[in-house]
Amino acid sequence: LRLPRARLRRAAARALEALGLLMLFGVVNVGLGIVFVLAYRGMTGQFLSFYLLNDAVLGILSLVQALIFQWWWARQE
């Protein structure tokens, strides 16, 4: 493709950065979900399953958060 190696390295670094941010935001979102489920159980006395946190929307939300954060961080430089 005759792309410059420096630009390929930069793109690979940004992709790995986005993947790391995705995992970070995913862990934070799941943690907040667990806190919410436990708080709901404690306040209402009703059972709420942790399986609610096993949804593709949570991954998509984490991806969007990671990309927005990465974009915002890059603008700061």
What's the layout of helices and strands?
Elements: H1 5-44, H2 56-76
Task: Describe the model.
With 77 residues, this protein is mainly α. 79% of the residues lie in helices and 0% in strands. It has two helices and no strands. It has helices at 5-44, 56-76. Helix 1 packs across helix 2 (56-76). The mean pLDDT is 93.
Apparent shape: elongated
The total of helices stands at 2
What's the number of extended β-strand segments? 0
Strand content: under 5%
List keywords for this structure.
single chain; 77 residues; 0% strand; mainly alpha; elongated
Summarize the structure.
By secondary structure, this protein is an all-alpha fold. The protein is 79% helix and 0% strand. It has helices spanning 5-44, 56-76.
